[in-house]
Write a structure and sequence with these properties.
Layout lengths: L1 H10 L3 H14 L9 H14 L3 H11 L11 H6 L10 H8 L9
Length: about 110
Amino acid sequence: MATGLAFTEAGLGNKEVALREAERAISLLPAKEDPVFGPGMEENLAAVEAQVGEIDRALARVERLLTTPYGAFPITLASLRLDPIWATLRQHPRFKVLITGPEPKTIYE
């Protein structure tokens, strides 16, 4: 799947390929068509963005996903604090403010 390839390419330092594959995963399963699993693909893109140094893009996506209802295990402040996939964001001031604040309210559309 494109997501696995995206993480592999990110780990190898192939930034452009990693981002392209993560974006391709979203195009295969967009949130508009699948509001349960589609946002999970966006969460994967945010993780790839964080891994390849696109910190501001990753943070913007994470902030939006925190208020989006999806799947069985949506992103939470606890997962941001604990999951090693987000380690590259932990020193960023915007991320520190985000994880020390209250859990954002879910927005149902």
